[in-house]
């Protein structure tokens, strides 16, 4: 993994918050930003409105919320792509979003054609475990930022 300058990660997180607020009217509770090689991962925690959370209580409603956010992201992502390019100096080649309706988490992935598997853990991993300190977890020199609203 590449070490991220915190100011770059913070700028990306702020852009993601503004993007979510602008397109949905709802600000996420927190944002996590991770850059690894050519993949930028932005996770918006608590990104669903109370109405969307209520709608997602059954499978049909959850599917509608997921599809709504996918379409919204697809149709509006150019603005965020441009901000990412401005901040990082690197063009975004691909982007996708996925919504986990039970937790209200929206994951936005910007990649170059690589399959990305995202696992949202039940809690934050302690720094001594996830910082690539030679404990054999294969995490390398991790980088990222979490911003809480």
Strand and helix map with partners:
Elements: H1 6-24, E1 30-36, E2 39-45, H2 50-55, H3 59-88, E3 94-100, E4 105-111, H4 127-130, E5 145-148
Antiparallel strand pairs: 1-2, 1-5, 2-4, 3-4
Helix pairs in contact: 1-3
Characterization of this structure:
40% of the residues lie in helices and 21% in strands. By secondary structure, it is of the alpha+beta class. It has one domain. The chain has a five-stranded antiparallel sheet with strand order 3-4-2-1-5. β1 and β2 (39-45) form a beta hairpin. α1 packs across α3. It starts with 5 loop residues before the first helix and ends with a strand.
Question: Main traits of this protein?
Answer:
single chain
Look at the helices and sheets and give the structural class.
Answer: alpha+beta
Q: Evaluate the radius of gyration.
A: 15 Å
* Overall form: globular
Question: Helical segment tally?
Answer: 4
Can you give the mean pLDDT? 78
Number of strand elements: 5
Poorly predicted runs are 130-141
Number of domains: 1
Main sheet: strand order: 3-4-2-1-5
Q: Biggest β-sheet: count, sense, barrel?
A: 5 strands, antiparallel
Helix proportion: 25-40%
- The termini sit apart by 26 Å
Strand content: 15-25%
SSE sequence, one letter per element: HEEHHEEHE
């Amino acid at each position: 993994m590449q070490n991220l300058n915190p100011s770059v990660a913070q700028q990306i997180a702020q852009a993601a918050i503004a993007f979510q607020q602008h397109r949905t009217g709802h600000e996420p509770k927190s944002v996590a930003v991770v850059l690894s090689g050519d993949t930028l991962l932005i996770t918006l925690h608590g990104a669903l409105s109370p109405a969307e959370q209520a709608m997602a209580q059954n499978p049909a409603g959850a599917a509608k919320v997921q599809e709504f956010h996918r379409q919204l992201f697809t149709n509006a992502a150019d603005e965020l792509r441009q901000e990412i390019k401005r901040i990082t100096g690197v063009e975004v080649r691909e982007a996708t979003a996925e919504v986990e309706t039970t937790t209200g988490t929206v994951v936005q992935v910007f990649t170059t054609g690589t399959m990305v598997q995202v696992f949202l853990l039940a809690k934050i991993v302690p720094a001594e475990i996830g910082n690539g300190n030679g404990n054999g977890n294969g995490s390398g020199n991790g980088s990222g930022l979490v911003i809480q609203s």
